[in-house]
Amino acid sequence: MFMADFRLILLALLSGCATLQTPAALPVCAAADVITTIGGVNSGRIIEANPLWRSSVNAGHFAPFLIAVAAMVWAIDRWANPKVSGVVAGVECGMAGRNLFLMR
After folding, report:
1. Mean pLDDT over the full length of the chain
2. How do the domains of the chain map onto residue ranges?
3. Where are the alpha helices (DSSP H) in 1-104?
């Protein structure tokens, strides 16, 4: 299961900047990051390292994290140009891949 998920994320990252700049890339990559973070923290295999979310996410309070990610996706979709959206999508997919790697 891990390798299949990891390969899908790696494929998204290696597919190029044009794919990451599509309107669907950022929400999909952000969702992958959120799902792998929550799954990893709930399983006890990873802890959240981001100092903004560390205390709430590691304590099992995911609402602030989910709201912030949704707000970030909405704001970038509304105001940022496709290059910024592509960079953020690449970072989000990279974090999801890192989470999967750490959960193996």
Report:
1. 86
2. 21-103
3. 2-14, 17-20, 25-43, 54-58, 63-79, 82-103
